[in-house]
Amino acid sequence: MKANATHSGPAAARNPISPANDVLGLNGADLVHPGLVNHPTLSPSIQVQILSIVDATGSASIGDIVAELPGHTDPVGAIFALIAADVLVVVTAGIIDAHSIVARPDGDPNGGFNSEDDETPPATSPDTAAGSAKDAPPIDVSALAEASLPPDLLLVPSSPLKPRIVMGPGRRRAAFKHVPILQQAGVYIFLRAHSVYVGFGTDVGARIAAGRQMPDGTPNVIIAITDMQDGLSDEDARALERILWSYVSSDEDFSLINGVPDGAPIDPDRYDQLALFASEVVLALRQAGLMFLHGSVRERLASPRAEPERLGAPRRIDDLPEGRVMELNYCGLTALAAERDDGTWLLLRGSDVRIETVNSASASASFQRAAWLHAGLLEEARDGSCYVLKRDISFSSGSAVGHFVSGSRGFGLSSWRAIEPGDDELAELAC
DNA sequence: CCCACATGGGTGAATTGCTA
DNA sequence: TAGCAATTCACCCATGTGGG
Q1: Last residue of a domain, one of A147, A178, A202
Q2: Nucleotide with C1' nearest the A403 CA
Q3: What is the mean predicted confidence (pLDDT) over A33-57?
Q4: Structural domain harbouring A394
Q5: How high is the pLDDT of residue A177?
Q6: Phi/psi class of residue A295: alpha, beta or left (left: φ > 0; alpha: ψ in -120 to 50)?
């Protein structure tokens, strides 16, 4: 995934002449000029370039500076060489990442150095810098932060995702196509009276401009959501669409026009990051007075436990469910489900769910594992051999249930066999 | 607004792989 | 090699998307 791309940062951190260890060029290099910081990553022109980016507005984010130095192999190392030499300081608190802001010490434009030759053209605005971020080398924020930590202190990785939300009136739909920061994977929301549509696009700006998703004319409000660092892959955006759809389904002010999106195959850790991303979106839209206005903030930030109509009513483990009880044995695991009169199936709590999904399985098999692990509806079995379902969950068919529990298309309707559920059958599930 | 097309779920058949 | 389990494939259908 793009967000996890690596580059040479870790190597630089261990390098004996990395910024942390040789900030003043004590390894024998000469000081060519007292106003120049001597460091392998810093040529005089790079130093001047970085400082002019900072001076253009008085400060700059590390990500912006990196974006302005597309040809540089270690732009972050260069920035930290200047920080270590007290030419720049980090003015934001907390963990160093691409959003951290650097400036001259005490607001001094010269930062204690004479920058008389600081005459390079002014840096571009942060917006254009972000627009060119795609061409810059990927930023390894964890390597960047670890380079600044004392020995034995480790950085705990956190989600690199941060939403950027652009909104506008529906009549300006076409304008979304021309916004550089929307020419990337993302999701969008259309509002019209009490109707809402949640969609995704691999180029979300173009998707908004071209689509005909609202059946009754144009939407009143369009909301476009991308990641600050273009960190969403196409599959992330598909999964995020389904996660956000689920959040929106709990907003009683609106009814959804579209059905459950397909989602995408996703691993549980990435799902958790996308769910956090979605809750940041929810908070922003609530604070903007647009959506998610009912109930407490805490209530709104916790996504619904499952999509509408999926969760079965609470049931004691030894109570018989409504319908005909069926059993599926697969891959050494067992699942029980109840086939109901309306054709839907209820997968019973306590059923085994295989941890892996095969390549040919549908996106839902992987997505639902991640979603229900996130919600606590699936838990890993004590011996780690499989997941165990904690609540009854509804499916559209026996084939769908078999597909989900086995993580493979091979276990369809014909794989199930009816059983007479005695106490021992249900007791088995209770274990 | 209509229609053609793409996509994905549901299903059973075919194929592959493992083990006794 | 036979038998079984696991996986993939092919088909049909419903739904959503995008172009005219």
Answers
A1: A147
A2: B10
A3: 80
A4: 324-430
A5: 81
A6: left
Q: Do A8 and A126 have their domain in common? A: yes
Evaluate if the CB of A250 falls below 7 Å from strand B.
no
Same domain as A292, residue A235: yes
Structural domain total, chain A: 3
Closest CA to A147 of A11, A347, A307: A11
β-bridge mates for residue A191, sequence order: A196, A221
Say whether pTM exceeds 0.70: no
A357 strand C contact, CB < 7 Å:
no
CA→C1' distance for A197 and C14 (Å): 20
Q: In this structure, are A171 and A289 located in the same domain?
A: yes
**A63 shares its domain with A111:** yes
CB A307 within 8 A of CB A246: yes
Q: Which nucleotide is nearest to A261 (CA to C1')?
A: C16
HSE, side-chain direction, 13 A CA sphere, residue A297? 8
Q: Å from A171 (CA) to B5 (C1')?
A: 29
Examine residue A319 and state whether it is found in any structural domain, yes or no. no
Q: A254 CA, B10 C1': separation in Å?
A: 31
Q: What is the pLDDT of residues A390-408, one digit of tens each?
A: 999 888 777 788 888 888 7
Instruction: Judge whether residue A414 contacts strand C, using its CB and a 7 Å cut-off.
Output: no
C-alpha distance from residue A6 to each of A138, A141, A233 (Å): 7, 9, 16
User: The tokens of A20 are what?
Assistant: 């942390």
Give yes or no: residues A18 and A100 share one domain: yes
pLDDT tens, residue by residue, A101-138: 888 876 554 444 443 333 333 333 333 333 333 334 44
Residue A156 located in a structural domain = no
What positions of strand C are covered by protein, i.e. any atom < 7 Å from a CB? 5-10, 15-20
Q: Are residues A143 and A6 in the same domain?
A: yes
Co-location of A291 and A397 in the same domain:
no
Gap from A299 CA to B13 C1', Å? 48
- Indicate whether A187 and A143 sit together in one domain: no
Instruction: Give the distance, in angstroms, between residue A411 CA and nucleotide C12 C1'.
Output: 19
Is A332's CB less than 7 Å from nucleic acid strand C?
yes
A315 falls within a domain: no
Confirm whether A26 is domain-assigned. yes
Task: State whether the beta carbon of A212 lies below 7 angstroms from any atom of strand B.
Answer: yes
The one-letter amino acid code at A410 reads G
pLDDT attached to residue A335: 86
Nucleotide lying nearest to A216, CA to C1' measure: B1
Beta strands A101-103; A324-330: pairing state: unpaired
